[in-house]
Specification:
flat, Rossmann fold, alpha/beta, 8 strands, 3 domains, Four Helix Bundle (Hemerythrin (Met), subunit A)
Length: 446
């Protein structure tokens, strides 16, 4: 996401490259390019103009310190203003009331039902809540089936009433069911509707009035760009929703909705959907998104994702094995599985500062681990536990069993051996310090 915008902002900053100071002339030229980049990203025109005017005003007259360049200073101002544009700070769900009622609204095809499942999974796994999903879409034939399948995947109960065509009655029955069974969050999925369909808009307004929800989340497909912002405004005028959810941010989106929606409807973006899996849902952090847009990565989110997947006890056991040089292929494939759970590989790489830009045109296949897993699974339990036992004849058999060739098997085993040596050296602080000492000095500051 935001790749094209990143490129254009980079080109805009080059106007200031080599300049000794920030002047009205060079800033005006840079802002012209930045405004064009924002408009190309489908950002609302008034938002883009107000944003660039603010950045220009803050940049002109700034004293550029000898330690930073005009371009770096402008990047800092841009980062601060982008953060403010997208909401300033994180706005989390208010889920203290028991039961908390969350109403989901949006257009057809925006991803409401999938988001409802993801939200239930998030509240269960990250917040320790006991959610109940309510199937309130009485118009789309497969909606109830879809919600039941998603609920089954995450082991969360779902309330359905296939006989009823009254979404208000279903919502109220679902809330009563949650109170009976001790569920402390009720997530009501609703039918998709167009803002200009008065009858359908009246219906969801009535659902709101009857259920008195604590949160109303408007789900919007970020790939629809400026249309998403216009739709959000129309829905907000009727529902006065509490927050926005941007789905499909992993797709070929230009980012205009993320950058415009807060300034147009004055409601926070609360979540972003970044993939199809049930755990591909992130709380929206404006400061982290601003850093990613400017190509500065998002290390905090990367670490948080890793912490969610890696167990402390397992990590301690693994550390012991590494110290004793006992790290084996069972451990290796376990680490691969945990990395895969963290999400889309290109998205993860984009969180590392500088790497996102470097990989801009590189296709990273999420199935890249498949041949490695096939090779390891073709080993016997003894071979996985004792990598040194894998001689040439065993390698030939493993290649045949995994559908790969002997070259690929040899390459994997060589990489594994090299990795094991490095891990062993770095597990010993004294040896690691000695290695670092022996490395050539980097010419910083010269």
């Amino acid at each position: 996401m935001f790749e094209n915008l990143q490129d254009k902002l980079d080109r805009a900053f080059k106007v200031l490259k080599g300049q000794g100071s920030i002047s009205e002339v060079n800033v005006a030229e840079t802002m012209k390019e930045i405004r064009k980049a924002l408009l190309d990203a489908d950002v609302n025109y008034k938002t883009a103009k107000a944003f660039t005017d603010t950045v220009k005003e803050k940049a002109i007259g700034q004293n550029v310190l000898t330690t930073i360049s005009p371009g770096q200073l402008l990047t800092k101002i841009m980062n601060d203003e982008l953060t403010e544009l997208m909401g300033g700070s994180v706005d989390e769900l208010k889920i203290s009331v028991n039961p908390t009622i969350i109403l989901i609204a949006g257009l057809n095809g925006a991803g409401k039902t999938t988001f409802s499942g993801k939200l239930a999974n998030f509240l269960k796994t990250q917040k320790g809540k006991k959610p109940l999903l309510v199937a309130g879409d009485v118009y789309r034939p497969a909606a109830i089936d879809q919600l039941e399948v998603l609920a089954g995947q995450i082991s969360v109960p779902v309330y359905t009433n296939r006989e009823s065509k009254d979404p208000i009655a279903i919502a109220m029955e679902g809330i009563a069911e949650a109170k009976r069974n001790g569920q402390n969050v009720v997530i009501i999925d609703t039918a998709g509707r167009l803002a200009l369909d008065n009858e359908m808009m009246d219906e969801i307004a009535n659902v709101k009035a009857s259920t008195n929800p604590h949160e109303i989340l408007f789900v919007v497909d970020s790939m629809t760009g400026q249309d998403a912002v216009n739709t959000a405004k129309a829905f907000n005028d009727r529902l006065d929703f509490t927050g926005v959810v941007l789905t499909k941010l992993d797709g070929d989106t230009r980012g205009g909705a993320a950058l415009s929606i807060k300034s147009v409807v004055n409601k926070p973006i609360k979540f972003i959907g970044t993939g199809e899996k049930m755990d591909a849902l992130d709380v929206f952090y404006p400061d982290r998104m601003a850093s990613r847009i400017l190509g500065m990565g998002d290390v905090v989110s990367l670490v948080e994702r890793a912490q969610q997947q890696f167990d402390e006890k397992e990590a301690a056991e693994l550390q012991k094995k590494i110290r004793k040089n006992k790290f084996d292929f069972n451990d290796f494939i376990g680490q691969i599985q945990q990395i895969k759970k963290m999400g889309n590989m290109k998205d993860l790489m984009g969180m590392i500062p500088g790497v996102g830009k470097a990989l801009k045109d590189v296709e990273i296949d999420d199935n890249a681990f498949t041949p490695i897993e096939a090779i390891i699974r073709s080993m016997t339990p003894y071979e996985r536990e004792n990598p040194d036992s894998i001689n040439q004849s065993r390698r030939t058999r493993i290649a045949g069993g995994s559908g790969t060739n002997i070259t690929e098997v040899n390459k994997l085993i060589k990489q594994f051996e090299d990795m094991r040596k490095v891990m062993k050296q770095f597990s010993n602080p004294a040896a690691a310090a000695k290695m670092m000492k022996g490395m050539p000095k980097m010419p910083f500051g010269k």
